[in-house]
Amino acid sequence: MPSTFNSKGVISFLRSSDRVSIYTWIAPVDWMAAATVAQCGINFAFCRISRARPDRLVPNDRAHAFAMNTRRWIVPTFACLIAVVAIVLRLYRLDTIPPGLQHDEVFHGHDAVTVLLGHPAIYFPSNAGNEPLYIYLTAGTIALLGKNPWGIRMAAVLCGLATVLFTGLWIRRAYNMRTALIASALVAVTFWPLFMSRVGLRSAALPRWRRRRHGCSGGRCRE
What does the alpha-carbon distance between residue 193 and residue 125 come to, in Å, rounded to a whole number? Predict the structure, then answer.
């Protein structure tokens, strides 16, 4: 490392192979910053709406009508925005980011192809054993998209999007709609949920089913 860190040194340093390790360290920070901005935006919007207090206004007042109309569209708008962001982040250059197929992804693809070739099973012994649910889901995506990274990883994308959805439904029943939107936004943009949604591994299906199995009533959740 040179004693003076000038602009040329910065450029050459970023062009070196160390940029991979730097990105690995910075990426989670970037996603957390984006999640914080999304959370602040949702909190700001709900605070602005809640100040109107339509229950204390005259029914014919314009402020009451505006508050009621705003409450009708604010939740669907934020829900659609979270869904669009989650979909774009999980589909953008799915075949090249992360680069190459990891060996576990290849094993899942191999098992899925055996199902398509007419050899179904309830347990797949390859790669230390795999349960069938994710393999059959991968078989469906490969049948639709082909034997390529898109077909292998699309099953994880679907599971990741389902995780965003079920997180929102679960938190809404346990707490309230604002908390549900914040939780869904965090799952949509934070690093590890996003990363696991872009690799064809069966672990992407685990959060979805854990949230689906939770029963919530009376503001509390039970498993």
Answer: 27
In this prediction, residue 5 carries a pLDDT of: 39
pTM over 0.90: no
- What pLDDT score does 208 carry? 60
Q: Can you list the pairs that 2-7 forms with residues at least 24 positions away whose Cβ atoms lie under 8 Å?
A: none
Q: Are 155 and 196 in contact (CB under 8 A)?
A: no
Which pLDDT does position 22 carry in this prediction?
40
| Interatomic CA distance for residues 79 and 128, integer angstroms | 40
In this structure, the dihedral spanned by the alpha carbons of residues 135, 137, 141 and 142, taken in order and rounded to 10 degrees, is 20
Q: Alpha-carbon distance 153 to 80, whole Å?
A: 23
Which strand (E) or helix (H) includes residue 221? Answer: strand 220-222
Q: Which of 8, 9, 59, 32 is nearest to 187 (CA)?
A: 32
User: Distance between CA 23 and CA 19 in Å, rounded?
Assistant: 6
What's the Cα-to-Cα distance from 70 to each of 18, 64, 222, rounded to whole Å?
49, 10, 33
Please state the separation of Cα 124 from the chain's center in Å. 27
Q: Which residue did the predictor score with more confidence, 130 or 32?
A: 130
Residue-wise pLDDT for 143-164, tens only, equals: 999 999 999 999 999 999 999 9
